[in-house]
Amino acid sequence: MITSLLIANRGEIACRIIRTARKMGVRTVAVYSDADADALHVRDADEAVHIGPSPARESYLVGEKIIAAAHQTGAQAIHPGYGFLSENAAFAQAVIDAGLIWVGPNPSSITAMGLKDAAKKLMSQAGVPTTPGYLGEDQSPGRLAAEADVIGYPVLIKAVAGGGGKGMRKVDGPADFADALTSCRREAASSFGNDAVLLEKWITNPRHIEVQVFGDNHGNVVHLFERDCSLQRRHQKVIEEAPAPGMDEATREAICTAAVRAAQAVDYVGAGTIEFIADGSDGLRADRIWFMEMNTRLQVEHPVTEEITGQDLVEWQLRVASGEPLPKKQHELSINGWAMEARLYAENPATGFLPSTGQLDHLALPSNERIETAVEERDVISPFYDPMIAKIVSWGQDRSEALADLQIACGAVECEPVKTNAWFLRRLLDEPAFEKGNVTTAFIGDHIDSLCATPVPSNALLQYVADDLAFSSAHMADRWGSPKFELNKTCFGFRLNAPANRAVRLRVDGAEAEILVGDKAIWNDYARTSVSNGRGTTYFENGASFVIAVNRHDGAATGAASDGAILSPMPGRIIAVSVAAGDSVTKGQKLLTLEAMKMEHSLVAPFDGIVADINATEGGQVSEGVLLVKIEKAD
Question: Does 297 qualify as catalytic in the annotation?
């Protein structure tokens, strides 16, 4: 058995591997970049080695540094996790050549499944059903266009070396084919260094079904049943579940048997996933499910398979890599209950899913579900890597129970000031089509506007805030008498650099208090907690967060104090500060320039006034929602 293991990865998967290794008595070694010096996977491991600067290409993607770290620490084996170098056959071979154990498939298996066209040919020869299409070597535009005509539109152009949705174009008719081909090839060459493509028949109602397979060095291969990963955004999975809704036993037997044949065709060892595309027009049927590709690594969504089978797949990986046979035979594996996983990201769906970086001043994750994470409160979400905060995994006796638990769990997420997609996940889980198990891979894209629309705060939440303020203002009784708050009316206001605010005007014994509700909103009534900060009080409800700033006045005030609060509209870097505290400014005057997403954004004064406060320095990094400049109206 392996006694010491280096994890060539970071984030939640590194923490996940460390947890199982520790359970098995295996010493763990972490590697880290400058940005990850204080990361949780570094704190959790028995030993850690610095491997370079923050950019992945200078650290986590440099195989020589990782192998050197293994030798330096006396590690016997290297586990690649997922992403980074996990499907790099050259790195796998280098690990083996260095006398170390590679916790993964043979390099030849990675190579065989690395190019989509070669993999599909191999699968067809092995009797695995493949999507109708063209895999020929003639890559001339004329030949490809002719083959598209034969297949019948719509067709899908796919880069043979592609992945993650890059190098893919749907073409609806002959007139669009040439431009789509040129665009696809250009993207494929840029992303993968290979502009070759294949053609596939476009599936009208596609569902993404995949099968977890496992092989050992003794010729054994088993499957651990299927997962449904149809809820995707731009070909990136958002919510996964196991088993697949609507999967009958005959179809399950057909697809899982085909997956085992696929793994056997490449002498597969270790954990892998065979991905299929299904035409869901008439339910799941064996004759309408086709091979897409194989992922020669552990998948992000492997916890849902673990939950329904009771198996630890990382333990399986370590035992197989140590030369042991598979822990279970096929007849010893069965499905128990239902599991779902939601990927919680530091991103804002209301602003086009822009990443949200910075320190997690407040973070509360649900405690009654399985949580896979690599961050804790006060940790930092870095701009250098994937912005995943956690995977939230639920299990139930049946699908309805697992779904209900995940709905509650996503609604319980609290995060401040970093924005998350928790409310978006909750909204997806509440969709009637998903509750019925009837969604395709196009569902999010087809409903993106309604799914991402910032909801209006509920009156119940606003009333709660009013009651909360009444309670907290008891100390003001000597000035205002008994603190009787009365919900009076709602109105809508304008704010520069942020969406319109909803205001609630309250009365306190004749004096007014106006609540300004920020750009986050709540649409139903799960839980209410709050965190106070310099901008006001942040309330959390059902996965969403928003700041409420309260201004109490005796009728003489002329508007909300936040009218002149200039907030950062997104994470970025301050490249120019044009004013200083005390300066007089005019409406529309540039205050500072923010660089974000490779674009410059000028933030300007909302009215004539005085710069009361400035919280920005040239070259400084800022998170979304941070107060940068405060303008007060001139007397």
Answer: yes
